[in-house]
Amino acid sequence: MEIVKDSSLIQNEIERFVNKDVYIHLETTNGA
């Protein structure tokens, strides 16, 4: 069960990082 929990936590971290990266990319594109 802990492995599933860790995998879910990692997935959340990845999604958060990707969303932040996409947001920064959009901001940069709009500002250019």
TrEMBL record:
One Pfam family assigned to this protein is DUF1806
- Listed SUPFAM superfamilies: Hypothetical protein YojF
The protein's name = DUF1806 family protein
